C-alpha cells in the first residue's frame, strides 16, 4: 500500500491517496478529527481518486453548513423537529 507525498489539502482537510493492487483510494482527514473519512470507492488513476476526494470534502463541507442553518431554524422555532429530521436525512 503506497500513500501520497507531499501533503495535499482541500478546505483545511488533509487528503491521502492510497495505491493498492492497481487501484487508488482516498482518505480524507478533517482538521478536528483523528480518523479518516472516505466513500469506499476505488479509482483507476491517482487524479481520479484525488478529484473524488475533493468532491467528497466539498459535499461534507456543504452538509455541515446546511446542518448549521437548519439547526438554527429549529432552535428559533422556524421549523419543527420533524421538519429538521426530514431536511437532514441525506441517505
Please provide a written account of the structure:
By secondary structure, the chain is α+β, with helices and mostly antiparallel strands. The protein has one domain (2-87). It contains two helices and five strands. The protein has helices at 46-75, 81-87, and strands at 2-3, 8-10, 13-20, 23-29, 36-37. Strands 1, 2, 3, 4 and 5 form a five-stranded antiparallel beta sheet that branches. Helix 1 (46-75) packs antiparallel against helix 2 (81-87). The radius of gyration is 17 Å and the shape is elongated. It starts with a strand and ends with a helix. The mean pLDDT is 91.
Give descriptors for this structure.
single chain, 91 residues, alpha+beta, 5-stranded antiparallel sheet, 41% helix, 24% strand
Short overview:
The protein is of the alpha+beta class. The chain has helices at 46-75, 81-87, and strands at 2-3, 8-10, 13-20, 23-29, 36-37.
Helix vs. strand class: alpha+beta
C-alpha Rg, in Å? 17 Å
Oligomer: single chain
Strand content: 15-25%
Number of helices: 2
Question: Quick one: overall form?
Answer: elongated
Question: What are the secondary-structure elements, in order, as H or E?
Answer: EEEEEHH
Mean pLDDT: 91
| Unreliable spans | none
Helix content: 40-55%
Distance between the termini: 31 Å
Main β-sheet description? 5 strands, antiparallel
Tally of domains:
1
Tally of extended strands?
5
Amino acid at each position: 500500500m503506497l500513500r501520497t507525498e507531499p501533503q495535499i489539502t482541500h478546505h483545511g482537510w488533509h487528503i491521502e491517496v492510497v495505491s493498492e493492487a492497481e487501484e487508488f483510494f482516498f482518505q480524507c482527514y478533517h482538521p478536528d478529527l483523528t480518523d479518516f473519512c472516505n466513500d469506499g470507492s476505488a479509482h483507476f488513476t491517482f487524479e481520479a481518486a484525488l478529484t473524488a476526494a475533493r468532491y467528497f470534502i466539498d459535499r461534507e463541507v456543504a452538509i455541515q453548513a446546511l446542518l448549521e442553518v437548519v439547526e438554527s431554524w429549529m432552535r428559533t422555532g422556524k421549523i419543527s423537529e420533524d421538519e429538521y429530521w426530514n431536511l437532514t436525512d441525506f441517505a
